[in-house]
Amino acid sequence: xKLVCPAGNLPSLKAAVDNGxxxxxxxxxxxxxxxxxxxLNFSNTxxxxxxxxxxxxxxxxxxxxxxxxxxxxxxxxQKAVDRAxxxxxxxxxxxxxxVMDYACERWPELNLHLSVQSSSTSHEAIRFFAEQFGIRRAxxxxxxxxxxxxxxxxxxPVPIEVFGFGSLCVMVEGRCFLxxxxxxxxxxxxxxxxxxxxxxxxxxxRGLETRLNEVLIDQVGKGxxxxxxxxxxxxxxxMGKTGYAIEAPTSLNTLPILPELLRIGAAAIKIEGRQRxxxxxxxxxxxxxxxxxxxxxxxxxFTPKQExxxxxxxxxxxxxxxxxxxxxxxx
Amino acid sequence: xxxxxxxxxxTRKRLSLGPVLYYWPEDQxxxxxxxxxxxVIDIVYLGETVCSKRRSLNTKxxxxxADMLTRAGKEVVLSSLSLIEAASELATLKRICANGRFxxxxxDMAAVQVLAGKSExxxxxxxxxxxxxxxxxxxxxxxxxxxxxxEQSRDVLRIFRQKMESSxxxxxxAWGRLPLAFSARCYTARNHNLxxxxxxxxxxxxxxxxxxxxxEDDSFLVLNGTQTQSALTHNLxxxxxxxxxxxxxxxxxxxxxxEIIKIFHDCLIDQQNIDQAVAALESFMPxxxxxxxxxxxxxxxxxxxxx
Lengths: 331, 307
Hints:
The complex is a heterodimer of chains A (331) and B (307).
Chain A: E1 2-6, H1 10-18, E2 23-26, H2 44-56, E3 60-65, H3 74-87, E4 91-94, H4 97-106, E5 112-114, H5 123-133, E6 137-139, H6 146-155, E7 160-167, H7 178-183, H8 187-190, E8 199-204, E9 207-212, E10 215-220, E11 236-238, E12 241-243, E13 251-253, H9 258-263, E14 268-271, H10 278-297, H11 306-314, E15 321-322
Parallel strand pairs in A: 1-2, 1-14, 2-3, 3-4, 4-5, 5-6, 6-7, 7-14, 13-15
Antiparallel strand pairs in A: 7-13, 8-9, 9-10, 11-12
Chain B: E1 14-17, H1 26-38, E2 43-46, H2 59-71, E3 75-79, H3 87-97, E4 103-106, H4 109-115, E5 121-123, H5 132-140, E6 143-147, H6 154-163, E7 169-182, H7 187-191, E8 210-213, E9 219-224, E10 227-235, E11 247-250, H8 257-269, H9 274-282, E12 289-290
Parallel strand pairs in B: 1-2, 1-11, 2-3, 3-4, 4-5, 5-6, 6-7, 7-11, 10-12
Antiparallel strand pairs in B: 7-10, 8-9, 9-10
Helix pairs in contact in B: 3-4, 8-9
């Protein structure tokens, strides 16, 4: 079970490498990847430095080109694939069928991973990408119970990577239009959920309001933490009650089920958070490394250390964590 | 071509009735499709696309309705589940794909895999098809009709129309609350304080889903079990002359669907009626209109236009 860590810049990449990542995933500085935020991601020179640093430490580098190009922009995605291939990265993480088709024709030797953004939740969906494009790994959406993940792994034609920690998409990835419904831009067509340009924080008599393109997502009283205004984690009124109708601000944390993920044969555990700081990457990587090593050494007696859980909660949205859809009761 | 699929008349624009996205009891579904059989609708999509726990009709029941509609001269398509999680859902999917008579609308990549290279099929609105390279690849594997994802704009559609073979039919989601997201979690159960595994089928209480408002009382979203929709109704009747659209999809709602079909049909025949139609249709919207996606804007915006 490998540990795959996020890096939004060179210091984060180094933090991941230094703290025990088996692989780091990164993106180019444009909308070809799903963390298209200002000031984030890698220029060519930075990638070359990062690749060298990772190689010197026997760590792999994956490049995410996992958004969906519109017809007019397709060549830009092709160029991104070429660039990554020429840099000699260890794998490309792709979602779009057209881009995958191009990558496997043009660069047949290239190692392709299926992005979570492809929204493939069953072994039949994964088989499509394996048969058509020869993908060698699939990252699966955060919608399956642990039992369903086990069944999928059992029947999947390729190794499966699962999410282990980080911000939680509660909707199936790659098919969520909540952000584009409100702003016109979303993960699929722009590479970001709730782009910062549409976010407004405003101190009012009623408290701190958070708005997305003027839609009131949340309103918090003094002393309360205001989360980033993603639609799925706002407070709304449903059937006469106001609350987190979809989900509260929270992060996924799989430490409690690590032995189970190992037992069912998850090939890799992915940490979310290319948009987070090098300090976050450092801490989460270190904890997950320790936990995976402890779990592999003695899976039957593994329990997550309290200090790991506390530290991870402190790095989480709303300072709380959940097992998400892995746990049937969450659904 | 399967034996029960009537030859397609590509010379005229057509109307389709999308799958019922809500949980309606069996008698309501049967009454609804009897209405459809007598209506001027050309194509009817049948089946459960949101939640596999909804079982007003089993596959056999759906096929009975498919037969009835075929006898009434409608083209019938069987729609597949949009989010597949359980092994039992894959089994149902395979049964639907192997029906041997009706075309299938693939709403998930598992359905694409089961159908690819074996029969002609329809690429549903929840498949991530954003560029012509993707659609061309799928056309080689059997896709003959594409229902555009709701967040795509008319400008994108125009490029598709220019680049695709003319045999590819293009359908747009022309009327209804927009399907925006799917989840493992059931929001209807959550808001009734029930676990999904014991949801007591509370979706039956709300034939058009549950309204979610912002704390400023704006109608924002609709919770429909594991699906989240727009509260506003997407309406493209204004675009009835758009040369790039072959089929206008009307998404069923519990009230007035028959009248909505009729108004769209009247506009197809005589475009003079459009202004009147817009006014009449607005009275059938539970909370108001939107059309932003079509113009490349935020989906929730209304009153967007070309100028």
